[in-house]
Amino acid sequence: MLAEDSVLLREGLIRLLGEAGTEVVAAVADGPSLVRAVVEHRPDVAVVDVRMPPTHTDEGLRAAVEARRAVPETAVLVLSQYVEVAYADELLADGAGGVGYLLKDRVAQVDQFLTALDDVVAGGTVLDPQVVA
């Protein structure tokens, strides 16, 4: 499933994932909708934008953490335009795996994005090299 407030990026990701053979069961534009969709659909993975309405600070990340508490088996791949080490730390805090943090620029590198997605679905941890540098 996808949680991205930019309609262009959201629709582009739906198309990209569909072409890669991945079914997108829900696509939402805000944090509360993300949590509801994860509980309802129980997806293998949620791809989540960190900054979402209404304040565009960390609503997506907070919703992803809440969704993982509700449905722990859901992998989460967070996308951000900015290197925010604190966001990556919060996402990784439970140590459970099945999480990733990538800069949105990586989506343009389709193979790298899809590999990261596969890795988090398999229970791995993926961190953008710029985040850990």
From TrEMBL:
GO MF term list: DNA binding
Stretches of the chain forming a coiled coil according to its record: none
Keyword Transmembrane: no
SUPFAM superfamilies according to UniProt: CheY-like
GO biological process, one term: phosphorelay signal transduction system
Domain Response regulatory, residue spans: 1-119
Modified residues (4-aspartylphosphate): 49
Signal sequence interval, chain numbering: none
PROSITE patterns: RESPONSE_REGULATORY
Superkingdom in the source lineage: Bacteria
InterPro entries found in the cross-reference section: CheY-like_superfamily (IPR011006), NreC/VraR/RcsB-like_REC (IPR058245), Sig_transdc_resp-reg_receiver (IPR001789), WalR-like (IPR039420)
The entry's keywords: DNA-binding, Phosphoprotein, Transcription, Transcription regulation
Matching PANTHER family: TRANSCRIPTIONAL REGULATORY PROTEIN NARL-RELATED, TWO-COMPONENT RESPONSE REGULATOR
Name used for this protein in its record: Two-component system response regulator
